[in-house]
Amino acid sequence: MEEKALKFAAVFLPVLSLFVCLFLPFFPKIHTWAEEAREARLAEAEFAASQQEMEDLEIKEEPDTGIGPKGQLNLRLPDGVDGSKVHISNDYVTQTIRIEIPGTDLAYFDSYPISGSSSHIDTMSYTKEGDEGVIEIVMDRVYELDMDYDSDYYYFNFLKPHDVYDKVVVIDAGHGGRAAGATKQGVREKEINLAIVLQLREIFAQGDDKIGVYFTRTDDGNPTFDQRVQLANKSDADLFVSVHNNSLGNGRMSRTNGTQVMYNETSEESRVFRSEERRVGKECRL
Ligand SMILES: [Zn+2]
């Protein structure tokens, strides 16, 4: 019995050490993968918790004949409800348009369905929140809204970002919510990332209005990785910048410092921007 155990140890231990040697270089990566998986789970759980039950709404398909209501989507206003009482928000990160309209219930939309074309719409649903009816429309991509109303209808037209802007930029503050990112001496990466991004927002607000800028988050939210990526894909972004502030695993100060630029090696455009960023970085130091 002892001999068997010795034989087993004689084979097992070298195999184990070989395994450790082979995978040692990947250990920091394995840690990163585990951390990313944990953050993805946190973000998805936060998003799921924010979702509520809603009833599906049908669209009355109406080809644009130039006659009748003039929007891509037309919402009939209930009697006595002025268009100024309707509140609309457009969440670019989830491509969800939210319309709060008083004086409606589900039966109202059976009598007066929203009409127009559903070709850009993934889902449309309705729920009641207090006195307000809330319609949520999930679009197939990011749109800017062009809206108007008269005494009978609210009109919605959807414009692609590049129809409005020459260049489209998506800026992502890394981490957020329960995912703090790198943490050192009580300083949390997610807060530094957000502070940088909020400053960028101010700079862009004073700049060229031909550049459209979308943010994955401007508060302590934590969009999922997929939502961050889809904001860029679904807005046809020319540039996606994700702001992170990393730290090394050990607790000591390190000689490793400075700016790190990660880019897609297979993309020539990414490569150009990376070298451009380095050049600007040098100029800043002069
Ligand atoms: Zn980070």
Please explain how this structure is put together.
The chain is an alpha+beta fold and 286 residues long. Among the domains are: 55-159, no CATH class; 163-254, Aminopeptidase (3-Layer(aba) Sandwich), CATH 3.40.630. Helix content is 35%, strand content 26%. The protein has seven helices and 15 strands. It has a five-stranded antiparallel beta sheet, with no helix packed on it. It has a five-stranded mixed beta sheet with strand order 2-6-3-10-9. Strands 14-11-15 form a three-stranded parallel beta sheet, sandwiched between helices. A hairpin with a 4-residue loop joins strand 4 (87-91) and strand 5 (96-102). The protein is elongated. It binds zinc ion. Residues 174-175, 181-182, 189, 244, 246 line the site of zinc ion (ZN).
Percentage of β-strand residues: 25-35%
The overall strand count is 15
> What would the principal axes of the Cα set say about the shape?
elongated
What is the average per-residue confidence, as pLDDT, rounded to a whole number?
Answer: 85
